[in-house]
Amino acid sequence: MQKNDWNPPVFGYAGRSGEDLGAFFQKLTSRIRPAGSAQPSLDLCLFGKHPGWDDHMEDIGRQSRELLDFKRMLYVEGVGGNIDSGNWAHLPESERLARFNHLLIATRDDYCIMATLTASADGKGRNLYPIVAAVQARRLNLADLGRLVGPLLLDMREAVQKTSAAAEAQSIVSGYQGHLDALLPNLSPADARSNRLLTGHQAERLFSSDTAAARVIYALQRAVESIGHDASSARTETLRAPLDSQQPWFAARLWCALARSLVGPDKAVTAVEYRHETGITAAAIPSGFVDLIIGNPGSAALFGLRAGAARIPLVSDIPFELDESFKTQIRQYLAACRTAGDNLAPAFPAMA
């Protein structure tokens, strides 16, 4: 483990020499967008490791309370927790993913956060932590976000990676926020329910076969049953699902919609795509998985960020003992999805 790769004494405060902590937080909170805003919005931010900073970079871009919570859960508790505990360091090389190369969607009732997690290093060459580019979208259609906002986020990530200068990275983020502000009027507004709906074709394409569908649906139903519908429950369930889409964030969006249709609007659902190829482009051949997290993701739930399939298998590869009546239900469900086509998918098979 690299020494001193985690240095901020408190979340969001990078230990600036000579700066009063109270004054820092007053300045920080003064630019936080209030939670629960009713208007559609797009807020872009960048944090993590970058060569322009000798330690964790200062957060760049707009801030909201939800983005601060997102950074705490993903970066401080998730990534930092697994680094500090040695969980990833103790993985055999055959079970450990080589690098951060992830796309993420975190969905809540009236907003979602799209993010990229990419291998990076600070100015001193320390590379245990990724750089994270994230955009919070409030009351906007997820399909529009994947089609129009996702490519901008990938472009910004690439531009930031090409510079080692902090000032240039800040300028890049500011420029892309301007692009998002200009794009906002062209995006479709959406309520929470519309982002939980799938068409028949979308539901069908999540599963490579009847057998895979039966295994995934069985595991998903058991996870939902275990966690319940109580928004106050701290329990979290995680399962690893297949990735079969070339379009970035597409599989993550569909898995989120499917899980949220089962668990209800009040429970957090996060989907993390990992692709084995070095680049993430629309033309790339998919080879990876989606970690679906129901509940607030913490250190244990985000262990999969560096754990490969040899450690956490796809649920579609686990030979559950399933009775014939359940398998018949699944075949009937998939047939109904094919019949529905571009119309809404039928309800999921009832819990056995």
Description of the molecule:
With 352 residues, the chain is an alpha+beta fold. The protein has two domains: 33-186, 2-Layer Sandwich (Beta-Lactamase); 197-306 and 314-340, no CATH class. 35% of the residues lie in helices and 17% in strands. The protein has eight helices and ten strands. The chain has an eight-stranded antiparallel beta sheet with strand order 3-2-7-6-5-9-10-8, sandwiched between helices. A two-stranded parallel sheet has the order 1-4. Helix 3 (142-161) packs antiparallel against helix 4 and helix 6 crosses helix 8. The longest helix has 21 residues, at 65-85. The radius of gyration is 20 Å and the shape is globular. The N and C termini lie far apart (46 Å). Mean pLDDT is 84; it is low at 6-30 and 278-286.
Describe the structure concisely:
Helices cover 35% and strands 17% of the residues.
Topology of this protein?
Blueprint (H helix, E strand, L loop, with lengths): L20 H10 L1 E2 L7 E8 L11 E2 L1 E2 H21 L15 E7 L3 E9 L10 E9 L3 H20 L4 H18 L16 H6 L4 H18 L9 E6 L7 H14 L5 E7 L12 E7 L29 H17 L12
Parallel strand pairs: 1-4
Antiparallel strand pairs: 2-3, 2-7, 5-6, 5-9, 6-7, 8-10, 9-10
Helix pairs in contact: 3-4, 6-8
Instruction: Give the class from helix and strand content and strand pairing.
Output: alpha+beta
Low-confidence stretches: 6-30, 278-286
Number of helices: 8
**How many individual domains?**
2
Q: What's the total number of strands?
A: 10
Query: What's the mean pLDDT score?
Result: 84
What composes the largest sheet? Answer: 8 strands, antiparallel
Strand percent estimate: 15-25%
Per CATH, the architecture of the largest domain is: 2-Layer Sandwich
User: What is the succession of H and E elements?
Assistant: HEEEEHEEEHHHHEHEEH
